[in-house]
C-alpha cells in the first residue's frame, strides 16, 4: 500500500491513493477516518440549516426564516452580536418562544461571532471543509477542543433551541434541522472520537 502525505490536511493524516481511503497514523496505528468524516457531514447538514445559519451569518445583521431573509426593522449585529441600543436582541427575544406573536426566544439570544460565520457574503453556505476548519479552530471557537465542542452541541441553550424553535407569525411551526438533537449529538460524538477530521478542500 502506497501512502503519501496530503499537505492540505491536518498533521498526521494521509491519503492512500491505491484505495482512496483517508487514514490516520496517530500513535503508531493506522485507521480509517472515513467514519469520522461521514459523521462530520451529518453535523454539517445541521450547522447549515436555516435554524443555525440565520445566526451564523457573514453579515452585519441576523437573518430570518427558511429563506434566510434579512431581519426586519433593520436590526444590526452591534459590537457584541446583541444588537444596538434601541434595537437590542433582548428587547424582543425573551427567554422562551412567544408563540402568540411568533417571536422566537431563548437564553442569551445573540448572533454568533463573525469567526463562526457559515455563509459567504453572497448568502451561500460555506463548504463543508471551510465550516469544519472554523469549528475546529480554537483561536476562533472560544478555545473548545473536541470534548468541548461535544458539550457545546449537547448542552448549549441556543443550540438546543434549534429543535424547539416555536411558531412563525402565521402560527405554523418553524422547520427543524435534518437530524434530531439526539442524532446530532451522536454524530458529533463519533466525529470527536475520530479526532475531529475535516474534509480536504476550500
Walk me through this protein's architecture.
The protein is globular. It has helices at residues 34-47, 50-53, 128-136, 146-155, 157-161, 181-193, and strands at residues 3-5, 13-16, 21-24, 31-32, 63-64, 69-70, 83-84, 87-88. A hairpin with a 4-residue loop joins strand 5 (63-64) and strand 6 (69-70). It is built from six helices and eight strands. The strands form three sheets. It has a four-stranded antiparallel β-sheet. The chain has a two-stranded antiparallel sheet with strand order 5-6. It has a two-stranded antiparallel sheet with strand order 7-8. The chain starts with a strand and ends in a 9-residue tail after the last helix. The protein is of the alpha+beta class. The longest helix has 14 residues, at 34-47. Helix 4 runs antiparallel to helix 6 (181-193).
